[in-house]
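note to self — DONT lose this again. spent like an hour looking for the file last time. sequence + predicted structure for the chain T wanted, 175 res
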Amino acid sequence: MSVILGVDPGLTRCGFGLLKDNKPLNFGVFTTTPDMPAIDRVGTIATQLEELVSTYKPTLIALERVFAQANLKSVMGVAQISGALMAIAYRHQIPLEFFTPSEVKLAVTGSGRADKAQVGMMVAKTLNLQEIPKPADVADALAVALCASKRARGQGTKAQQKWVAAAKTANTRLG
């Protein structure tokens, strides 16, 4: 019985999705407002993520890798929440893996260039949800968890595990 916590990190909206044996267990979004001091924003979301980890005891935490966009403030917020989640994973001794946005899209839709609408639709279809989870951060977090269920080390069949290990080794060598 594996429980995977997928997170789409963000300082304004932090989506989360918990899957148990590839079925939705809990999902939603934590929010803060830009007028809050940064320490309160990070602390609030970190506390909520820690509560999820303590309650559901995931066996793996999957996180969308920071994507460097033109908006430096956005990237900083993603990095701050990612760091807080890494500390939580460390404290609870839970493996944590990062996935690029294109890895997530490929795992969920079959195309690394899928748009948000396609990802949301496939998440809803794959998890037998009545509608696409909203906001998009929630669908993205569930997509990260689905990706981890297929591509994370120690997940999937033996053949899938070998393929993932080889792909991650190749990616490491490529930079």
